[in-house]
Each structure stands twice: as structure tokens, then as C-alpha cells.
């Protein structure tokens, strides 16, 4: 009987036979294969053997090692340049809003301040707090010292995002980012009457996204469900209240007051800048996490999950946004959400260089690589939210999700053909 060759790939450009043809042998490659837990098998991965998954992990580790061992001055210059640009935009915006009574100054000041806030939250704050730049040993650009322009405290956000979300990505019951406790964004979430208005809820969340994330980071649902008391939560509530108070004073009191007679339009400009930042952040994050094709998983998936299986879960549970270099910077390179979830502590400026390698890896192993322009990704998310607002909407989503996985269907069809061909040989 023919056996599978599981030796290391000598030429990564050559697609292994057992991945493309699943081999004509009777060696088990689907559910029930030796050494595999069925919890780790989805429609996207049923054609892969345990060894295939480990190979994928090994190739990703090699990509990571190559990048992390080559970090140097050019990378440090990049983040410092982005920080200088962000601070320049903020200073320009604040100065222009001093004359906010004049329409051109109001428009340009608001736009400049909005750009500054987007850059600070996305390409700087989010990524610094992930520890992407800790290797520089710069105390001013370090995950333990950076405090961002956001109502969430850095430490609170790191707990819910860096730990809970990135560890348990898209695992129902563990990843609280699935719907942020207010939206039904997955067919497996039970429908409730409140979901009927979730298209409106989503619009409201986009407008106040900064505050929504801040409240979400407090995990107040623990109190409602009996896992914590208000006394337990009070220290974190006070920390956020102090942080939010400083943000409100800075944007709506101190700087507008400096503008004298332009106080009101200057405050309105800051409000619009924050709103623009909120809507943009919401769009980018939802495009990376909630497109129809993105997969979710049961808690049993975590049982004995290997590092390689974790990598695969990250890729199946994320989606990318295609666009220009400027778009990538303005998204904090979260337009490369797949690469970010696989390597959350890799400097963001490197995601664009490894994205072709990760895409090719998915192609060679028959895994989906969810990617598309922003209009398509966000439009799909809004459609999904609308469909899941009604009781039977999950059926439509599940059908579309299956159609979006041609690799899995082709692999299953190939497997059936090969098994049929193997029957006479067995006789």
C-alpha cells in the first residue's frame, strides 16, 4: 500500500501530492484519522492530515524566524517616522481649530486631527501595546509604558484584546469579541428579539466605538452573570473613569478654551474627529473579523490544541482588506488581519512582506485565504448583520459560508473519487 511522504518540503513551491490529490492510498485523511481530534476538523481542514497541519506550523515558524531575526534600524526608523507624522498632524489640527470660526480652518483642522487620532490608535497604539516594538528597548515606545489616545486604559485593553481575543480567537464562549456582547454576528449565537434592531445597534456602536470598547473592556457582564461583584469591578471602573475624564477634558475643554471665541466650533471639530476615528476603526475591525466566510469554533476545539492548530485557527478566523500602501498604514496594517493574528507581536510594517508567503501557504495546502477590497468586505459584514437580525437568517449565512469554501468542496469531491478508485484495488 502506498504511504504518505511526510519528509520536510525541499521546495515550498512544489505542492505535496497528498495535499492536492489526497493520495490514492487508503490511508485515513479525514475525520477519524489516527492522532486527530474531530474537534479540530472543519470543512476547510478535513482534507489535511495531522502531519499537514504540523508542516503548516513549521513553515509559519520559519517565516516568523526570518522576519524577527532581521529586525533593525530601518524598522525602528519606520515607527519613529509614523509617530512624528502623527504628532505633526495632531499639532496642525489643534492649531487650525484655534481659528475654527473660519470654515477652511475648521475643515482642515478637523481632518488633520482625525488623521492623527486614526494613526495613533491603529498603526501606533494598537501595535505598540501588542509589544511589536518592545525589541527596540525604547522606554517611550514600549507595551508597558505606552498610554494611547483612547478612553480604554492600556492595561484593560491588553487583557481583553491581547490575551482573551488573540488566545481564543473566534471560539464561542471564550472570545468575547464575537459580537461584543451586543451583536449577533455568527449563526451559532442564539437569536433574541433584541437582535431585530441590531442594524441600528451596529450604526450606534460605530459612532461611539471608542466608548463601546471601553465599556466592553470592563467585562461588566461578569456582574450580571454572577462571576464578579460591583466591588470587584470598581477599581477598573475608576481607572477608566479617570482616563475618560482626561480625554474629555483634553478634547472638549482645554484645547477649545485656548481658541477663545472659537470654543464651540473647536469642540465640535474634536467631536467630529473622534467620530471619524470611531467609524473608521469600527469598519477596519469588523472587516477583519466578521465577513461571512470567516469561521468560528466550539470550545472543544481548544482541547489539546497544538501551536500549529492554533495558527490554522487564526488564519481561518480572520480576513484581509486589499488596497494601497496608504490604506494599510491607516488601518494600522490590520488590513493584513490574517498575518496579524498569526503573528500579533510582529512589527506591523512587515505584514505586507509576508502576506504573499502566507497566501501561497494557504494555496498549497488547500486552505481559504479570505481577502477582498474594503467595500466588499464591509458590505458583506453589514449584510451579514442584517440577515442575522432575524430568526431564520442563520440559514442563509451558513449556505453562503459553504459556497465560499470551494477548496473544501473540491477536496471532499477529490477524496470521494480517490476512495472510489481504491475500492477495486482493495478487492
How would you characterize the overall build of this protein?
The chain is mainly α and 427 residues long. The protein has a domain at 79-166 and 200-273. The protein contains 17 helices and 2 strands. It has a two-stranded parallel ribbon. It starts with 16 loop residues before the first helix and ends with a helix. Residues 105-371 form the Fatty acid desaturase domain. This is Acyl-CoA desaturase.
Brief summary of the model shown:
Its EC number is 1.14.19.-. The protein is mainly α. The chain has a domain of 162 residues.
Comma- or semicolon-separated keywords:
disordered N terminus, two-stranded parallel sheet, globular, disordered C terminus, 427 residues, 17 helices
Radius of gyration: 24 Å
What's the SSE pattern?
A: HHHHHHHHHHHEHHHEHHH
- Computed structural class: mainly alpha
Report the β-strand fraction as a percent range. Answer: under 5%
Q: What oligomeric state do the depicted chains represent?
A: single chain
Summed up, the helix count is 17
- Give the total of beta strands: 2
**Strands of the biggest beta sheet: in what spatial order?**
1-2
The whole-number mean of residue pLDDT values reads 84
**Which descriptor suits the 3D outline?**
globular
Helix share of residues? 55-70%
Question: Low-confidence segments, ≥5 residues, pLDDT <50?
Answer: 1-39, 414-419, 421-427
Largest sheet: 2 strands, parallel
Terminus-to-terminus distance: 13 Å
Amino acid at each position: 500500500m502506498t504511504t504518505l511522504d511526510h519528509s520536510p518540503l525541499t521546495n515550498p513551491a512544489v505542492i505535496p501530492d497528498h495535499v492536492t490529490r489526497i493520495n490514492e492510498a487508503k490511508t485515513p485523511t479525514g475525520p477519524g484519522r489516527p492522532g486527530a481530534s474531530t474537534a479540530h476538523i472543519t470543512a476547510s481542514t478535513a482534507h489535511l492530515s495531522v502531519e499537514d497541519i504540523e508542516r503548516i506550523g513549521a513553515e509559519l515558524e520559519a517565516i516568523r524566524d526570518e522576519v524577527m531575526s532581521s529586525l533593525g534600524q530601518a524598522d525602528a526608523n519606520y515607527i519613529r517616522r509614523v509617530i512624528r507624522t502623527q504628532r505633526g498632524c495632531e499639532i496642525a489640527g489643534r492649531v487650525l481649530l484655534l481659528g475654527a470660526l473660519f470654515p477652511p480652518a475648521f475643515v482642515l483642522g478637523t481632518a488633520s486631527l482625525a488623521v492623527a487620532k486614526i494613526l495613533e490608535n491603529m498603526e501606533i497604539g494598537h501595535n505598540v501595546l501588542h509589544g511589536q516594538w518592545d525589541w527596540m528597548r525604547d522606554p517611550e515606545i514600549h507595551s508597558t509604558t505606552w498610554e494611547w489616545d483612547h478612553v480604554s486604559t492600556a492595561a484593560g485593553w491588553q487583557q481583553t484584546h491581547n490575551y482573551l481575543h488573540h488566545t481564543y480567537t473566534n471560539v464561542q464562549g471564550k472570545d468575547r469579541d464575537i459580537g461584543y456582547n451586543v451583536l449577533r454576528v455568527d449563526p451559532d449565537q442564539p437569536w433574541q428579539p433584541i437582535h431585530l434592531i441590531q442594524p441600528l445597534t451596529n450604526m450606534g456602536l460605530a459612532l461611539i466605538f471608542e466608548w463601546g470598547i471601553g465599556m466592553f473592556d470592563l467585562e461588566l457582564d461578569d456582574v450580571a452573570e454572577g462571576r464578579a461583584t460591583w466591588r470587584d469591578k470598581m477599581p477598573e471602573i475608576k481607572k477608566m473613569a479617570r482616563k475618560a475624564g482626561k480625554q474629555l477634558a483634553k478634547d472638549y475643554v482645554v484645547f477649545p478654551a485656548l481658541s477663545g471665541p472659537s470654543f464651540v466650533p473647536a469642540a465640535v471639530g474634536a467631536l467630529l474627529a473622534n467620530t471619524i476615528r470611531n467609524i473608521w476603526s469600527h469598519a477596519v475591525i469588523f472587516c477583519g473579523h466578521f465577513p461571512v466566510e470567516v469561521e468560528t469554533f466550539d470550545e472543544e476545539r481548544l482541547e489539546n490544541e497544538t501551536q500549529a492548530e492554533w495558527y490554522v485557527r487564526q488564519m481561518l478566523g480572520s480576513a484581509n482588506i486589499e488596497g494601497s500602501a496608504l490604506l494599510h498604514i491607516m488601518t494600522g496594517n490590520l488590513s493584513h488581519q490574517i498575518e496579524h493574528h498569526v503573528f500579533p507581536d510582529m512589527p506591523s510594517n512587515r505584514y505586507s512582506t509576508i502576506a504573499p508567503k502566507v497566501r501561497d501557504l494557504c494555496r498549497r495546502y488547500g486552505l481559504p485565504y479570505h481577502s477582498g477590497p474594503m467595500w466588499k468586505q464591509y458590505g458583506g459584514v453589514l449584510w451579514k448583520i442584517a440577515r442575522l437580525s432575524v430568526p431564520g437568517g442563520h440559514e442563509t449565512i451558513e449556505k453562503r459560508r459553504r459556497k465560499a469554501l470551494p477548496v473544501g468542496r473540491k477536496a471532499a469531491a477529490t477524496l470521494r473519487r480517490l476512495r472510489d478508485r481504491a475500492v477495486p484495488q482493495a478487492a
